[in-house]
Design a protein that fits this description.
This protein has about 290 residues and is α+β, with helices and mostly antiparallel strands. The chain has helices spanning about 1-5, 105-115, 130-140, 150-165, 180-195, 200-205, 210-220, 225-240, 250-255, 260-270, 275-285; strands at about 25-35, 40-45, 50-55, 60-65, 65-70, 75-80, 85-90, 95-105, 120-125. The protein folds into two domains: about 25-165, Regulatory protein AraC (Jelly Rolls, Sandwich), CATH 2.60.120; about 180-285, Arc Repressor Mutant, subunit A (Orthogonal Bundle).
Length: about 290
């Protein structure tokens, strides 16, 4: 009896409460890789999921919120849901990037936790090896259709999020740039009047500044001139309209290009394709969305 009293009570070696609720609702819907495509260009002003894109090599640019971001290896950027934006590969050193589309409030909380938001849409990661390996793992698993395929994808998905969290700069470097009121006035005016004849003088009057100063100011904040921005915005609208039942000439006119030849030249300068060739890629179902 005494021996029973003196016998040590068994306890767990490890016993900890855990909370996995915060990031529990993460839904991965698409994943892919776009590799070394010169002139790759995409634009939209509306999407219904969260799409993150990670540059593994090469260069490109991402325009959103009236700010132009230069992209390179290690850049992780978020495509906004309801805001005009475009992204474009460098013609001499085109980027390759992985992309993944998510939904779920758990993913929304993850984005906030790493400060990747519409106002701060680009993060440059410090350690990229694990992030790239996680993306590779996802793309390898995606075609699998066995009984536990979705479970393996979910596991790899959380491995990716963990790799991103580990690779964050410390402290997290914010790339947010304050938008100049004159620049915003110009971009807002273009969004409402791109289909009409718009001159640099018109834009200067809207911004209430001298036309020469406007060019300098606009280039400082966006990386391009006001007229080049106008052209790219018109081409962006044309990219969407080419999916409709309109002739190429009519599409150009509705987007503000009164001369078909000018539309042809400007469209190819921006996208690397003629309007007709771009339309054919849409009809073939080529994914230009990511």
């Amino acid at each position: 009896m005494d021996e029973m009293k003196n016998k040590p009570i068994a306890v767990d070696k490890i016993s900890e409460d855990v909370d996995t609720l915060e990031f529990s609702n993460v839904i991965l819907s698409h994943v892919g890789l776009l590799a070394d495509q010169p002139y790759q260009y995409y634009t939209t002003d509306k999407r219904y999921d969260y799409c993150i894109q990670y540059v593994c090599r090469g260069k490109g640019e991402f325009f959103v919120g009236d700010v132009l971001y230069k992209l390179g290896r290690g850049a992780l950027f978020l495509l906004p849901k309801q805001r005009y934006h475009y992204y474009k590969s460098d013609e001499h050193d085109p980027y390759s990037y992985y992309w993944a589309c998510f939904n779920g409030d758990g993913f929304e909380r993850f984005l906030r936790s790493i400060n990747l938001t519409d106002d701060n849409p680009v993060i440059f990661l410090d350690e990229t090896t694990l992030v790239e390996k996680a993306f590779i793992r996802l793309t390898e698993l995606a075609p699998e259709k066995d009984k536990f395929a979705s479970l393996k994808m979910l596991s790899a998905c959380y491995e990716l999020l963990d790799a991103i969290a580990v690779a964050l700069p410390s402290p997290c470097r914010e790339t947010r740039i304050k938008v100049n009121p004159a620049v915003k006035a110009v971009t807002d005016y273009i969004a409402e009047n791109y289909m009409r004849a718009v001159t640099l003088d018109d834009l200067a009057r809207v911004a209430h500044v001298d036309r020469c100063y406007l060019v300098t100011l606009f280039r400082r904040h966006t990386g391009i001139s006001p007229i080049r921005y106008l052209i790219r915005y018109r081409v962006s609208v044309a990219c969407k309209m080419l999916g409709e039942d309109l002739s190429v000439t009519e599409t150009g006119i509705r987007c503000g290009f009164s001369d078909p030849t000018n539309f042809f030249v400007r469209f190819k300068q921006v996208t690397g394709l003629t309007p007709s060739a771009y339309r054919k890629t849409m009809l073939r179902g080529t994914d230009f969305r990511r």
